[in-house]
Design goal:
alpha/beta, 8-stranded mixed sheet, VC0802-like, Carbamate kinase, single chain, 5-stranded antiparallel sheet, binds aspartic acid, 37% helix
Length: 438
């Protein structure tokens, strides 16, 4: 029988109504044996996620301000879930201990983790599955680095002892017993780690949308749904802004070939998006998706015969390194090089960075352009497919959009163009129309 790990996000586990939906989904396939739960999310847009409420109680407690009103909000959420699901459960002792721990200065990560802990406890009761605390499965070192070997060993043991289990997402424990959390949205990572640890046939990630869209729906009306996407395409698209899944969620699975199926709890019959290691390119369009980001700066450095100065690139990189600047891209020409960096990183230390480049690298000229947007056009089908770049550039030319930069790696998985921020939305719409509108 196949084995599925199913992770349910916050909106899927936000109220008794959604808990019952989730229970039906899980019960409809016996292969769904290991379930990873998020903390309750929003039931409506003006709502606040339990994780955010917990962070707030921590901040209030730290400043010795009364946190009971916020804690009551959290208690009421769980009460509604328990009563609506008609469960015989009482979480009073848990809340008393959270309250006591807050007063006694418990860590921020411990407090944040309680959202998933309690939700997983309730879901395990509703499903009649075992509850396994993430503290027994997910290990970190003291600096917060995830410890693979130790965790996978514990997970392998866990499946021998438990046929079906619910595990809280988002956190684990360090060698001293302190709770550590992943970055926000990290329940997706727990799901990937558990999937790898149990050698799942499939990792289902249940959320509140039917998978990935080929463009940002705030810019393109009803963009086409992506049915299948490869790991590497997804890395490119999510780097550039499309976020349904945590950016790092595919990393534990990439060398295992475990597929991720993104599904919508509120519309389970929708196909969703399947994320795979490799996909056939037939029947697919030339591109899989378009995404992008604003707020980049470009540092243009000119130096005649820069290649003759063998230490030039090293010096340039060390200026970025000592100033903690991430290099996003680096298009070059014969006598010039452009460093594309995030606007806020450069702005935080602008004068120092520019001066250090001038003194350390002795360029002929340094200039900076601000307000640059990058658009990434991603598609595994563009490899060896003549005319994709031509179509892209023609679409932008017709829209009278100036392309300031072009980046394409030899993997031919994507083409990135740098344009003015003010052209961003228009450019995305034109590219979408050129490639995707059927
Ligand atoms: N509850 C955590 C957050 O809000 C983790 C998660 O939902 O995946 O970031």
């Amino acid at each position: 029988m196949s084995l599925i790990v199913s992770k349910f996000g916050g909106t899927s586990l936000a109220s008794s109504q959604t808990f019952l939906k989730v229970s039906n989904i899980i019960k409809s396939d016996k292969a769904r044996r290991y379930i990873v739960a998020s903390a309750p999310g929003k039931t409506k847009s003006e709502d606040t996620k339990v994780t955010d409420l917990l962070y707030l109680t921590y901040d209030l407690a730290k400043h010795k301000i009364n946190f009971n009103d916020i804690l009551d909000k959290i208690i009421n959420k769980y009460r509604e879930i328990i009563e609506g699901c008609k469960l015989d459960m009482d979480l009073t002792d848990y809340f008393n201990s959270i309250s006591k721990n807050l007063e006694e200065g418990a860590s921020k990560e411990y407090i944040a983790s309680r959202g998933e802990y309690l939700n997983a406890l309730i879901l395990s009761k509703l499903l009649d599955y075992d509850f396994i605390d993430a503290e027994e499965l997910i290990f970190f070192d003291e600096s917060g680095k995830f410890l693979e070997d130790k965790s996978y060993k514990a997970i392998a043991q866990m499946i021998k002892d438990h046929k079906c289990a619910v595990i809280p997402g988002f956190y684990g424990v360090d060698p001293k017993g302190n709770i550590k959390t992943f970055s926000r949205g990290g329940g997706d990572l727990t799901g990937s780690i558990i999937s790898r640890g149990v050698s799942a046939d499939l990792y289902e990630n249940w959320t509140d949308v039917s998978g990935f869209l080929s463009a940002d729906p705030r810019i393109v009306k009803n963009p086409r749904q992506i049915n299948t996407i490869t790991y590497s395409e997804l890395r490119e698209l999510s780097y550039a802004g499309a976020s349904v899944l945590h950016e790092e969620a595919i990393l534990p699975l990439a060398d295992q070939g475990i597929k991720i199926q993104v599904k919508n709890t509120f519309s389970p019959e929708d196909k969703g998006t399947l994320i795979v290691a490799d996909a056939e390119t037939e029947d697919e369009s030339e591109i899989t998706g378009i995404s992008g980001k604003k707020h980049f700066s470009v540092i243009n450095i000119e130096k005649i015969q820069m290649k003759l100065d063998k230490s030039f690139y090293r010096k340039l990189m060390s200026v970025l390194e000592v100033n903690h600047i991430d290099l996003e891209h680096m298009p070059t020409s014969i006598d010039s090089i452009s460093l594309i960096v995030k606007e806020n990183q450069l702005a935080s230390n602008y004068d120092t960075i520019i001066n250090e480049i001038k003194t350390f690298c002795s360029p002929d000229k340094v200039s900076v352009e601000q307000n640059i947007a990058l658009i990434t056009v991603v598609g595994r089908a563009m490899k060896n497919n003549i005319g994709v770049a031509a179509k892209l550039f023609a679409a932008l030319a017709e829209a009278k959009i100036n392309i300031q930069m072009i980046i394409q790696g030899s993997s031919e998985l994507n083409i990135i163009v740098g344009i003015k921020e003010s052209d961003y939305e228009k450019a995305i719409r034109r590219i979408y129309d050129a490639f995707i509108v059927e």
